[in-house]
């Protein structure tokens, strides 16, 4: 695996062009690396003038059948006229190509731009689109992808952090207590909440808006989870305006799919799960030269003090308190998209 990782870290424009050409496309030579940390993503121009996006998957993240399940879900959504960006077939009709042990896929370059904020009309549109996407997600099974649960997003990541050497001994007890409290809280509130196929990482950077409306991108974190995961990623703010936007989204969502109010109790626990998952995600990839550059404060006392405080603060607010008290006080300073969404991309 070390050798595969080294090949992944060393991907060059020449190797990218060779891989895409060997899979049946004819690149012109234009190759621009896009800003993506998890995978390696490139904008290519073909000889016929089209632009495509070539995505090289990080080794050992997903097995081939797990990537195929993501692709199949995208085709299923597209067949039901949900605006998603689905992969393009290679010359052999498949959507996954393997080059030197690294999986890759080619996608059409979708026009549009990511929006930092959505207006009221757009929130209603996104609510309706998400509901339709979840209707399809709930209609079929998922086999190879994990569930979004406390084990996958807190307990196993925590064990990795504790053994990584990147979480200092003086913070381990405090961080462990806060993380496990978050896991327990999520499990308590998630009882009876239905799970189905969801986007999983539906933040504004993975939604483009253009002349044809919205397009959902990057289903790399596609999992089986609660519907509210995709909701809170789109309307993530916790202040009065954020809650108003959440209501507008739900007004649109409920035109196509039921959504129980109690499911909103999972928003803050899901935020906590993401905090822990985020830290472990960085730690697991620390040998990738791009990560120390992207996260220079990771591992410092200041970093872990902030992480502990954030997790502890999450446990102090009950869902009811958030709804009733938000009009009277700011709960916490809001993070920017680039701070909070770890694989945020500025798209051309």
Shape descriptor: globular
Report the span from N to C terminus.
33 Å
Element string (H = helix, E = strand) = HHEEEHEEEHHHEEEEHHHHHHH
Residue-averaged pLDDT? 90
What's the assembly state of these chains?
Answer: single chain
Radius of gyration: 20 Å
Share of residues in helices? 40-55%
Low-pLDDT runs: 320-342
Major sheet details: 5 strands, antiparallel
Number of helices: 13
Q: How are the strands of the biggest sheet laid out side by side? A: 1-2-3-5-4
Strand content: 5-15%
Describe the structure.
35% of the residues are buried. With 348 residues, the chain is α+β, with helices and mostly antiparallel strands. The chain has helices at residues 2-9, 13-22, 64-79, 120-139, 150-164, 169-190, 228-234, 240-253, 267-284, 290-294, 301-316, 319-325, 337-340, and strands at 27-33, 40-46, 51-56, 97-99, 102-108, 113-114, 196-198, 207-210, 213-216, 223-225. The chain has 13 helices and ten strands. The protein is globular and about 55 Å long. A hairpin with a 2-residue loop joins strand 8 (207-210) and strand 9 (213-216). Helix 9 (267-284) packs antiparallel against helix 11. It has a five-stranded antiparallel β-sheet with strand order 1-2-3-5-4.
Brief summary of the model shown:
With 348 residues, this protein is of the alpha+beta class.
Any key phrases for this structure?
348 residues; alpha+beta; five-stranded antiparallel beta sheet; three-stranded antiparallel beta sheet; 47% helix
């Amino acid at each position: 695996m070390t050798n595969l990782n080294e090949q992944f870290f060393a991907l060059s424009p020449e190797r990218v062009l060779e891989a895409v050409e060997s899979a049946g496309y004819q690149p012109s030579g234009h190759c621009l690396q896009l800003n993506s940390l998890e995978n390696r993503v490139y904008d290519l121009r073909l000889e016929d003038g089209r632009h495509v996006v070539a995505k090289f998957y990080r080794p050992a993240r997903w097995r081939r059948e797990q990537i195929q399940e993501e692709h199949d879900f995208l085709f299923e959504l597209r067949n039901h006229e949900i605006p998603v960006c689905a992969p393009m077939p290679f010359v052999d009709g498949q959507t996954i190509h393997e080059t030197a042990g690294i999986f890759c896929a080619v996608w059409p370059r979708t026009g549009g731009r990511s929006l930092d904020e959505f207006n009221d009309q757009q929130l209603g549109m996104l609510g309706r689109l998400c509901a339709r996407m979840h209707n399809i997600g709930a209609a079929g099974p998922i086999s190879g992808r994990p569930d979004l649960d406390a084990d996958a997003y807190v307990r196993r990541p925590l064990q990795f952090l504790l053994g990584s050497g990147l979480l200092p001994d003086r913070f381990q007890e405090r961080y462990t207590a806060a993380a496990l409290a978050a896991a327990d809280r999520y499990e308590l509130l998630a009882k009876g909440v239905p799970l189905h196929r969801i986007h999983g990482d539906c933040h504004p950077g993975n939604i483009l808006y253009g002349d044809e409306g919205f397009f959902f991108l990057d289903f790399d974190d596609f999992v089986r989870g609660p519907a509210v995961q995709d909701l809170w990623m789109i309307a993530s703010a916790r202040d009065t305006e954020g809650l108003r936007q959440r209501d507008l989204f739900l007004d649109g969502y409920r035109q196509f799919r039921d959504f129980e109010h109690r499911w909103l109790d999972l928003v803050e626990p899901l935020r906590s799960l993401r905090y822990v998952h985020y830290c472990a995600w960085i730690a697991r990839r620390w040998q990738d030269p791009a990560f120390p550059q992207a996260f220079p404060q990771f591992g410092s006392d200041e970093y872990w003090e902030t992480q502990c405080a954030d997790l502890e603060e999450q446990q102090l607010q009950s869902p009811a308190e958030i709804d009733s008290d938000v009009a009277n006080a700011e709960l916490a300073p809001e993070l920017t998209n680039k701070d909070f969404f770890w694989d945020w991309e500025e798209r051309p």
